[in-house]
Amino acid sequence: MNSFLSAQYRYLFRTYPSRRSVKHKLFIGVEAVQLLSKHCALQRALKSHDAPTFITGGRQCTVILLSHNRPQNVSLLVEGALKNAFVRKVVVSNSNRGVRIADWVKANDPRLVLVDETRPTRPGYRFVLAAQEADDYFISVDDDIFPAPRQWTEFFQCLLANEAVPHGLTGNLYKPGTASSNGSPFHHVAGENVEVDVLIGAYAFTRRHLERLFELGRRLELGEMTSLANGEDVLLSFSGEGRPQIHDVGELFCCASTSLEGVALWRTLDDFWDERVSLFERARTTRAAMDKRHGSVS
Fold first, then answer.
1. What's 287's domain CATH number?
2. pTM > 0.90: yes or no
3. What Cα–Cα distance (Å) separates residue 154 from each residue in 84, 160, 170?
4. Mean pLDDT score, 180-204
């Protein structure tokens, strides 16, 4: 069994003790079969996909990928992105100093840049890396979501169809006074073509969105984006001319560690949801003040 699948099954079976009902515990067997099926389907898609020769207008994007706890996941993301001709460059930033990312990503493509960071970085670093690139369009996907090549294409086309707002594949609706399954007022939304309040996991955005994001961060006095561990996606979600949008590009193959304590940030960081609520409300107020000052959405 390859290292990716071995890790997936380890993640999956680590969830067993936290499953409360007998039915949920038994369902782990079904999930194990589904995991293998989804992996096989993605492998077939990677082998059969014929990359489109161009996107209307010849527009291209840079893909930013971050790696820390799950280096075995990155190769599938890289392969899926590089199957598309509209991807001008893929930058993989590894913040785990105990790992050499080239040992995990073996793709041979001149568009691929692998970086082992020499200082600690957090999720906000994805936007620092994007700002250093020359492109006007960007995609960044967390290392627990594995889009097939076609899904990468559809995602980019969604951004090009409406550049006014940032786009995602999953998101949250903020409903104060309620509690979702994770105990927070942020309710998960996926598999729909709708507006949301916060994008999570996958992001397609423009340079203009980046500019607004950094301005918002400065006004909120958040310090270096490189060190922002929680809420960089909240800032991006307030960077458009309206609410961000998510899209249904078909069922997504997601890592078995998505909700695993010690791996997933939202299950690991203390006060994760309290910090998020506070930042969301502050960002909403600050963005409204920015718009009022400029007389309209800038």
1. 3.90.550.10
2. yes
3. 11, 10, 14
4. 95
Express each pLDDT in 177-188 by its tens digit. 999 988 899 999
Residue 116 has pLDDT above 70, yes or no: yes
5: amino acid identity, one letter: L
φ, ψ for residue 103, nearest 5 deg: -75, -15
Question: How far is residue 238's CA from residue 216's CA, in Å, rounded to a whole number?
Answer: 8
Q: Which residue has the tokens 């998960």?
A: 188
Count of the separate structural domains present in the chain: 1
pLDDT at 295 over 80: no
Domain enclosing residue 171, as ranges: 3-294
By C-alpha distance, which of 150, 141, 148 is closest to 168? 141
CB atoms near residue 155 (< 10 Å): 22
Q: Is the dihedral of CA 5, 102, 99, 64 positive or negative?
A: negative
What is residue 16's predicted lDDT score, i.e. its pLDDT? Answer: 83
- Extract the tokens encoding 101: 């990312």
